[in-house]
Amino acid sequence: MCTFSSISLIFLLAIFKFDGLHSADTTIWGPGLDPLIVLPARYFYVQYDQEKFNIADFNVLISGKTKNGNNCRVWTNILDRKDASFIVRYKLYEICYEFRILVENKKTLKKYWNYFDQGPIYPDECDCSKVSIDTWLSNTKCRTNIEQINNDLNQFKNVNFQTVFGKMAKFYSQHPHSTSVCHYVVKNNLIFRKCYGEYTGFKMFMDNLLLSLNRKVFLPDLEFFVNLGDWPLSSPKELFPLFSWCGSNYSVDIVMPTYDITESALENMGRVTLDMLSVQGNIEKPWSQKIEKGFWMGRDSSKHRLNLVELSKKNSDILNASITNFFFYKELKEKYGPGKKPISFFKFFDVLLQLLIILTI
Ligand SMILES: *[C@@H]1O[C@H](CO)[C@@H](O)[C@H](O)[C@H]1NC(C)=O
Ligand SMILES: *[C@@H]1O[C@H](CO)[C@@H](O)[C@H](O)[C@H]1NC(C)=O
Fold first, then answer.
1. What is the pTM assigned to this prediction?
2. DSSP codes of every residue in 38-103
3. Of 125 and 11, which is predicted with more confidence?
4. Distance from residue 299's CA to the centre of ligand 1 (Å)
5. Ligand 1 midpoint to CA 252 (Å)
6. H helices present in the chain, as ranges
7. What's the pLDDT tens digit per position in 196-250?
8. Which of 19, 36, 270, 337 gives the lowest tally of CB atoms within 10 Å of its CB?
9. Which ligand is nearest the CA of 297, by number?
10. Minimum-distance ligand to the CA of 147?
11. Ligand with minimal distance to 251 CA
12. Which helix (H) or strand (E) covers residue 321, if one does?
């Protein structure tokens, strides 16, 4: 059981509780205030009294020196959330010393946050400073008690771990065209895997997560299976412990954050530009001005999506759903079309409610 509680904690890396500064007119909080917490992109929030200030009144400076005393390469990005708060995120490209985080008010010259650390402060890519998993969990202040993951894991109290992995390998290699799972072993902080199935490209997402972790943490020895598909695969009858990006009431897959969420954390301020932080800084409408409807847009990959479009045509006052490309149901284009031109992801958030329909054919 130890194996599974550790890994479940690891997956929750994106969820932080963090104490910052709370003053009468400004609050600052977030894991990026402590650069000893190594993240691909470090970030923190600044919230201010909008009666007194606006975002332009704040000066944010993040800097450091290299070993040779030159300025350290730090990319800082400010995201205005348009609700009297903004996100500061920054990415390091090299090891920095004399590291400084300054948040001050240009009007009042008050310094709200003035952090200094002699360093070294490490970039995420650096395979150079590892701490124990317990130290790391405690430093990052990850939430440890999450009902869904607790419930998912609680189903596996009576599993015989001596034999179950062998049975799973056998079972999941039976249908290579419809199932893709990987067996991961972490041993001495090295990562090994064997995958079963024809289409296992998505293993890169799990690999990247583990490789980011083992650069900064001594991972405990672990063994587990991951489902790479978009359909739960563990039945209550067999009770195979299987980590998945999806679940249902009729399966016992242990649901973890999906690959695009972990990818957007790992590639934040990098290859990925649509992520949980950037979206907050690119929303045009404040909450009070959002269109009070449900919104959905996407391709025709399931009948349920066509049904939603039909519902939307009948109830356009509460629902705006449309298909962009007809690929699977070309013959139904007349009825459910015409295909709409895709819009920017950020425009989705002009509308109050986002609908997700991810059933595949
Ligand atoms: C799944 O279970 C939850 C909680 O028991 C219940 O609220 C929900 O209606 C169920 N969904 C389906 C589709 O059966
Ligand atoms: C639905 O949303 C699209 C994309 O934003 C927009 O062009 C269209 O006018 C909306 N339709 C209705 C009925 O509001």
1. 0.83
2. --SSEEEEEEE-TTT--GGGEEEEEEEE-TTSSBP-EEEEEEE-SSSEEEEEEEESS-BEEEEEEE
3. 125
4. 27
5. 14
6. 2-11, 133-140, 147-154, 164-172, 203-216, 259-266, 303-314, 333-336
7. 999 999 999 999 999 999 999 999 999 999 999 988 999 999 999 999 999 998 9
8. 19
9. 2
10. 1
11. 1
12. strand 319-323
Q: What pLDDT score was predicted for residue 17?
A: 45
CA of 250 to the centre of ligand 1 (A): 10
Residue nearest to atom 8 of ligand 2 (CA): 320
Please give the distance, rounded to the nearest whole angstrom, from the Cα atom of residue 241 to the centre of ligand 1.
Answer: 21
Nearest protein Cα to ligand 2, atom 3: 320
Q: Which residues line ligand 2 (CB under 6 A)?
A: 316, 320, 343, 347
Q: How many CB atoms lie within 10 A of CB 56?
A: 9
CA of 320 to the centre of ligand 2 (A): 6
301: helix, strand or coil: coil
- The residue count for the chain: 361
The atom number, within ligand 2, closest to the CA of 350 reads 5
Q: Does residue 329 register a pLDDT over 70? A: yes
Ligand closest to 315 (CA) is 2
Cα separation of 94 and 91, whole Å?
9
CB 16 within 8 A of CB 44: no
How far apart are alpha carbons 344 and 349 in whole angstroms? Answer: 10
Q: In whole numbers, what is the pLDDT of the chain averaged over residues?
A: 89
Tell me the two tokens of residue 38.
């190594």
pLDDT for 4 equals 39
Give the pLDDT of residue 15.
41
pLDDT at 12 over 60: no
Q: Which two tokens stand for residue 329?
A: 């149901």
Residue bearing the CA closest to ligand 2, atom 9: 320
